[in-house]
């Protein structure tokens, strides 16, 4: 028997604590209603966070100095030096390209260089900053200081030191400062030289020194060059706005708008001065370069002229091409003459042959010119006359021989005359031929000379061209440099900077930082974001059951009813309250539960109802006692059994002792009738748990427990059992198996949502088809239509009692707090 009981107990424990089955968990998904509930409860905190963000924005604006920015727009018209002088094509395109590279970037660096800073410091009084102390912030008195400081510092450690100054009289000031860790100073007169360790000061009044100004506190700081350079470089911005249009924007930020404007305008001025100085320096350097180049070119031109003169003097020519043409013409002319002489020589040879043949003409009818063509070209009249005479004598001789013989005197005389004339012609021909040959030899000699001279002309032409090139180049460059020097000297008088101020600096009206609208927007957005994060955090940390809708959504058990909070009295433990407040909202809600119980078990007159929960503190005993009271008030006889033998509380609810009870009945120490205790309601009795036994679960499994229930059925209509929490021990499961209606108590804003999974496990593992849930201690939103807003409280944790909740105050703040919570 004991073995079977232990096996059954182990099975119950395994079923109660087993893992979840494969059907999954119910109630998963995003809960919008819970999110809205959390958002409503967090609304007051969201409003406070937004107010906090706006307050932080206001404080930030209140204690932050506004920063102003002034800017101007410049247009740079840069030209290369070679292009300005027209030397680009002569000096080479590469030089011009190198001079025109990165012009705008170079101008930006020039504006941000120490050259401009040095000129700026010489133009503006930036080395001494004057301040007046305000209510919250200090203000710089740029150009509006009632006093002026002249100084001579020998100790560099006094730079960037704060000198406090107050007027102790109309013409007296009190000065104080820290030096070597000690406070020093004194009272001095205005305009008086002040000799201090490491420095000499003179404080002088300005036109702005009034009686009102003497009541304020001032201080000034003397800034060294390094600190001033850092200040300028940190706040100065130079940006290229449009590279194609060569526009540059100069901007300066400062806490004082007038100072920012003056610095930008002064930068434009000193930049103009620097550009003019730079152009004048460039002009001087350019003139120096031109004069030096002109002198060098003049020397080179003289050398080229001397070389050319030497060539002309040595070769007696300045134009070789003309010489070539002349020699060529001479050669052609000589060739013609040579051909003529050759033809004459041939003709003379022919004439000589004809003279030797003693027949000059072909026939007696032909003339001498016809028989000897070209005779007229000889241009020798005596020879022609002799040949004509010889031809006539030969013709007469031939006519005479036809009539006479050679022995005839007349024939002989004729032959003698012919012989004499022929000898004369021979001599004349020989003489002419020698003259022609002499002429031909002279012509050949001249032709050879001309050809030799013609062969030397290419070398002379090359040499002449080589000598002419530097001469012409130096001559052209010399003339061009002379013109440029004249033009550059003329342009020097009207030198202007190559830039225009398109938009001068103006005094800024609104600060660029902080922007009030942006700061307030950030504060508002931060407040809203923090509020949303709070809602999200509270939503994700919201792991308790809040309302009946969550209970219905997360469990498969029927929700029997909702019990509102109760705060009519302070209770340290659960009490029977329905008999004292029969018309209260809590009594009505429990009556509704009683009605629902009647619907569930309408066929049975005798009912066993068990009431359990997951852990202690969820109101299990409170619901049991007051539900029993409501049922007893309806005329039914009710008995309440306290089976939470580890932590009995029913006797505390009725204000009695726990000397005997269920534990003593089950061990047969007392009878049932001996342990029944009466209450203020005649039809309501209870049996306390009795002394705590060492084995409560084994006692419940004892058959004597069933016998006790049978005995109670004989006297009562309803048996209400206050069982132990099923999340801690298994006793409650054993009792729920015997109950007609097992009730499961879930407390709003106390029971974890994970507890609801235990209800589903119990129903699946033990087939509790009639298990019903009751939401306890629900506020107005958790009542889910019941509309009751009373409350009571319990302590948290197993073994603790009920907590006390004070009655809501009637103030407006309490009503507002209750409205949002």
UniProtKB/TrEMBL annotation:
Residues in coiled coil: 287-344, 383-449
Transmembrane segments: 43-61, 517-541
Domain Solitary outer membrane autotransporter-like beta-barrel, first and last residues per copy: 228-328
Highest taxon above the source species: Bacteria
Residue intervals of the Tyrosine-protein kinase G-rich domain: 462-538
InterPro entries named among the record's database cross-references: AAA_dom (IPR025669), Bact_polysacc_biosynth/exp (IPR050445), GNVR (IPR032807), Omp_AT (IPR021621), P-loop_NTPase (IPR027417), Wzc-like_C (IPR005702)
Example GO molecular function: kinase activity
Ranges of residues in domain AAA: 607-762
Catalysed reactions, as listed in the record: L-tyrosyl-[protein] + ATP = O-phospho-L-tyrosyl-[protein] + ADP + H(+)
Enzyme Commission identifier(s): 2.7.10.2
Keywords associated with the record: ATP-binding, Coiled coil, Kinase, Membrane, Nucleotide-binding, Transferase, Transmembrane, Transmembrane helix, Tyrosine-protein kinase
NCBIfam families, sorted: eps_fam
Family: Belongs to the CpsD/CapB family.
Protein name (Swiss-Prot/TrEMBL): non-specific protein-tyrosine kinase
Organism (species): Hymenobacter algoricola
């Amino acid at each position: 028997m004991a073995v079977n009981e232990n096996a059954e107990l182990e099975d119950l424990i395994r079923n109660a604590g087993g893992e979840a089955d494969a059907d999954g968990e119910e109630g998963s998904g995003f809960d919008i209603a819970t999110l809205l509930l959390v958002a409503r409860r967090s609304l007051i905190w969201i409003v406070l966070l937004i107010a906090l963000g706006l307050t932080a924005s206001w404080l930030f604006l209140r204690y932050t100095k506004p920063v102003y920015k002034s800017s101007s727009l410049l247009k740079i018209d840069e030209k290369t030096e070679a292009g300005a002088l027209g030397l680009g094509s002569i000096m080479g395109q590469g030089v011009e390209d190198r001079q025109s590279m990165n012009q705008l970037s170079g101008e930006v660096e020039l504006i941000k260089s120490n050259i401009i800073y040095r000129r700026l410091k010489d133009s503006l009084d930036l080395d001494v900053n004057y301040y007046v102390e305000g209510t919250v912030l200090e203000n710089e008195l740029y150009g509006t200081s009632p006093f002026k400081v002249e100084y001579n510092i020998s100790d560099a450690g006094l730079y960037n030191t704060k000198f406090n100054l107050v007027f102790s009289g109309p013409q007296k000031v009190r000065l104080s400062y820290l030096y070597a860790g000690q406070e020093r100073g004194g009272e001095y007169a205005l305009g008086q030289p002040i000799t201090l360790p490491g420095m000499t000061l003179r404080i002088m009044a300005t036109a702005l020194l009034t009686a009102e100004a003497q009541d304020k506190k001032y201080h000034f700081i003397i800034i060294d060059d390094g600190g001033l350079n850092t200040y300028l470089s940190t706040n100065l911005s130079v940006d290229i706005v449009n590279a194609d249009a060569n526009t540059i924007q100069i901007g300066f930020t400062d806490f004082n708008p007038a100072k920012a404007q003056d610095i930008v305008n002064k930068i434009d001025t000193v930049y103009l001065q620097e550009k003019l100085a730079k152009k004048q320096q460039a002009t001087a350097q350019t003139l120096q370069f031109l004069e030096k180049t002109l002198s060098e070119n003049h020397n080179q031109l003289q050398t080229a002229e001397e070389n050319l003169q030497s060539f002309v003097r040595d070769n007696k020519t300045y134009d070789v091409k003309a010489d070539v043409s002349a020699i060529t013409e001479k050669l052609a002319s000589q060739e013609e003459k040579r051909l003529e002489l050759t033809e004459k020589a041939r003709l003379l040879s022919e004439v000589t042959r004809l003279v030797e043949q003693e027949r000059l003409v072909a026939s007696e009818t032909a003339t001498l010119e016809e028989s000897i063509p070209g005779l007229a070209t000889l241009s020798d009249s005596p020879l022609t006359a002799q040949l004509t005479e010889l031809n006539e004598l030969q013709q007469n001789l031939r006519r005479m021989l036809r009539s006479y013989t050679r022995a005839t005197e007349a024939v002989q005389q004729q032959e003698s005359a012919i012989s004499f004339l022929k000898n004369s012609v021979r001599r004349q021909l020989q003489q002419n031929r020698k003259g022609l040959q002499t002429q031909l030899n002279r012509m050949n000699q001249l032709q050879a000379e001309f050809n030799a001279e013609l062969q030397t002309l290419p070398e002379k032409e090359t040499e002449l061209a080589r000598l002419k090139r530097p001469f012409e180049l130096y001559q052209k460059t010399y003339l061009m440099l002379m013109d440029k020097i004249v033009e550059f000297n003329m342009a020097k008088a009207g030198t202007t900077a190559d830039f225009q101020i398109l938009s001068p600096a103006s005094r800024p009206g609104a600060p660029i930082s902080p922007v009030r609208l942006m700061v307030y927007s950030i504060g508002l957005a931060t407040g809203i974001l923090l509020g949303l994060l709070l809602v999200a955090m509270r939503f994700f940390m919201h792991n308790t059951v809040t309302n009946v809708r969550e209970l219905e959504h997360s469990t498969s058990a029927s929700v029997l009813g909702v019990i509102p909070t109760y705060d009519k009295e302070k209770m340290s433990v659960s009490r029977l309250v329905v008999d004292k407040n029969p018309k209260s909202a809590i009594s009505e809600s429990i009556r509704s539960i009683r009605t629902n119980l009647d619907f569930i078990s309408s066929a049975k007159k005798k009912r066993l109802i068990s009431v359990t929960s997951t852990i202690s503190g969820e109101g299990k005993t409170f619901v049991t006692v007051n539900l029993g009271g409501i049922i007893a008030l309806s005329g039914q006889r009710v008995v309440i059994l306290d089976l939470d033998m580890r932590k009995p509380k029913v006797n505390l609810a009725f204000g009695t002792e726990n000397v005997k009870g269920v534990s003593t009945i089950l061990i047969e120490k007392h009878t049932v009738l001996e342990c029944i205790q009466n209450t203020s309601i005649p039809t309501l009795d209870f049996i306390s748990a009795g002394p705590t036994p060492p084995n409560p679960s084994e006692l419940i499994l004892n058959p004597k427990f069933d016998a006790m229930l049978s005995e109670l059925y004989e006297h009562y209509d309803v048996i209400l059992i206050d069982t132990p929490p099923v999340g801690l021990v298994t006793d409650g499961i054993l009792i729920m198996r015997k109950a007609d209606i097992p009730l499961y108590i879930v407390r709003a804003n106390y029971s974890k949502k994970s507890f609801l999974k235990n209800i589903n496990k119990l129903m699946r593992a033990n087939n509790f088809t009639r298990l019903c849930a009751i939401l306890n201690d629900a506020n107005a939103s958790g009542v889910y239509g019941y509309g009751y807003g009373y409350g009571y409280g319990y302590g948290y944790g197993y073994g603790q009692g009920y907590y006390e909740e004070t009655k809501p105050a009637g103030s407006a703040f309490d009503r507002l707090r209750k409205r949002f919570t």
